[in-house]
């Protein structure tokens, strides 16, 4: 059993704690899979069942730990659980999810064909495996659902893989951006490496309980497969764990769409599928089609030595991840640097810093700033102004709280403290000097309130509307940025 390390860019996998460990109450799984078939086994062991002759099984393993999600819901959960039977109905799905949905599963090679790139696809050019069908204009899908719609076409392989974690995966999330996007990261004469990003979620409850949505920030991973999809050299799928929070949880307190909903964010240290070796044939035939060797489903796989793949074109994991991210989130056409790095860059370039502080990640599905990123932050005028005049960053409240409490770097503590002084739940947008001084800020709730008002009703002319923009949100955010420039530019060091 394996357990990913904090860095999520191609990390190694150290030993996963035992399922019997009282300090590890979460889910611990092991998977075993291959080009011909894919099997998952609970906790330990892996093997192969042959579905068709000539197909090539591949051993693999995965791990899942999610007990931390329950303990991380620190703001409300334990007190709610003690208050009422309603709370127990709403949260029982999470509390009862303590084991893998299926001890094993079998996949045929053809099931992985959806990961093949379209004909003529170039290195680094993203494409949609499962397109997103939602936008800020279409709204979102119903929260009051228990069972996913039957998957169709390329959705089937994603649904079946995720069903090993829990029996009710939704391959399209309720909120945009949905779906699965992929990118070619390496090409050889016979093989592709494809990196992918999946936005999916799980419904943990069934009637008579109330709906409970469990939404990992994203699934990402890669597959190395032959160009005809008859052989798979490697596969990995996982939820990134490099941030302190990576899963959104939303649950209803009633059986209708208008019922009250509660929201919290947690951390899942591991949710992963990983292959441990290349696929191998189930049978070996000579030139005349005569059987040379084979193995029974219960026996040991055939032993092969595979040649080293010589890649002719390659793209780094980091660059591929960035391109997938921009495809999912157009607002990431602006570079958002890590918190301390952004201040270093702002000082070096003598620019103001545009900062967003929030509870959930801005660039994945565990986010508390959906409306912001889907409207003003991806607006072309805002993108242009941010790229030209600001250094941008976004941060989690929890990470700045941790930074403020660390003793190693007093400057970083000061920068975090200046941000947290101005923060109000749920999202705060700020304009700062390179020394951390906040010269202008606006809360997301107030921002949404004034953009829903008539222009003549807005008392503060700092956030007055402009006739140059039809969209009040874009106009208001443009005014916010320009006011930040007006206040901050005179204070920059010459």
TrEMBL record:
Q: Which GO terms describe its cellular component?
A: endoplasmic reticulum membrane; mitochondria-associated endoplasmic reticulum membrane contact site; mitochondrial membrane
Report which superkingdom the organism of origin falls in. Answer: Eukaryota
Q: Name one GO biological process term.
A: gene expression
Q: Protein name, please?
A: Selenoprotein N
Which organism is this protein's natural source? Nannospalax galili (Northern Israeli blind subterranean mole rat)
Cite the source lineage.
Answer: Eukaryota, Metazoa, Chordata, Craniata, Vertebrata
């Amino acid at each position: 059993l394996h357990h990913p390390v904090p860095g999520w860019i191609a990390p190694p996998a150290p030993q996963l704690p035992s399922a019997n460990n009282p300090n590890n109450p979460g889910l611990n799984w092991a998977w075993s899979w291959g080009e011909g078939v894919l099997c998952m086994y609970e906790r330990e062991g892996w093997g192969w069942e042959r579905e068709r002759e000539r197909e090539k099984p591949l051993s693999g393993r995965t791990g899942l730990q999610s007990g931390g999600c329950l303990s991380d819901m620190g703001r409300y959960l334990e007190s709610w659980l003690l208050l009422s039977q309603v709370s127990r109905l709403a949260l029982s799905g999470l509390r009862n999810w303590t084991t893998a949905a299926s001890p094993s599963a079998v996949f045929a090679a053809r099931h992985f064909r959806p990961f093949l790139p379209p004909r003529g696809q170039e290195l680094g050019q993203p494409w949609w495996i499962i397109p997103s069908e939602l936008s800020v204009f279409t709204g979102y899908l119903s929260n009051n659902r228990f069972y996913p719609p039957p998957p169709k076409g390329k959705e089937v392989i994603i649904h079946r893989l995720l069903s090993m974690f829990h029996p009710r995966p939704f391959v399209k999330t309720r909120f945009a951006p949905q779906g699965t996007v992929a990118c070619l990261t390496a090409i050889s004469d016979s093989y592709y490496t494809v990196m992918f990003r999946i936005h999916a979620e799980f419904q943990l409850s069934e009637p008579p309980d109330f709906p409970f949505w469990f939404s990992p920030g994203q699934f990402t991973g890669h597959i190395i497969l032959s160009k005809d999809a008859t052989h798979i050299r490697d596969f990995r799928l996982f939820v990134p764990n490099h941030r302190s929070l990576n899963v959104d949880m939303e649950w209803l307190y009633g059986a209708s769409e208008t019922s009250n909903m509660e929201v919290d964010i947690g951390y899942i240290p591991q949710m992963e599928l990983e292959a441990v070796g290349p696929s191998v044939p189930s049978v070996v035939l000579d030139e005349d089609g005569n059987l040379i060797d084979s193995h029974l489903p219960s026996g040991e796989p055939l032993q092969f030595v595979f040649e080293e793949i010589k890649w002719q074109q390659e793209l780094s994991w980091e660059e591929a991840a960035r391109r997938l991210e921009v495809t999912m989130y157009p607002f990431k056409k602006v570079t958002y640097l890590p918190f301390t790095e952004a201040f270093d860059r702002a000082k070096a370039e003598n620019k103001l810093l545009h900062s967003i502080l929030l509870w959930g990640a801005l660039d994945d599905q565990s986010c508390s700033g959906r409306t912001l990123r889907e409207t003003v932050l991806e607006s072309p005028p805002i993108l242009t102004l941010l790229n030209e005049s600001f250094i941008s960053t976004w941060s989690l409240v929890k990470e700045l709280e941790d930074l403020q409490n660390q003793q190693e770097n007093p400057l970083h503590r000061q920068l975090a403290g200046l941000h947290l002084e101005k923060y109000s739940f749920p999202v705060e947008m700020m304009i700062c000097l390179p020394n951390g001084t906040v010269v202008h800020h606006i809360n997301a709730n107030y921002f949404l309130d004034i953009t829903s008002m008539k222009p003549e009703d807005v008392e503060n002319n700092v956030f007055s509307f402009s006739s140059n923009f039809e969209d009040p949100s874009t106009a208001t955010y443009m005014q916010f940025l320009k006011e930040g420039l007006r206040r901050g530019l005179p204070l920059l060091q010459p």
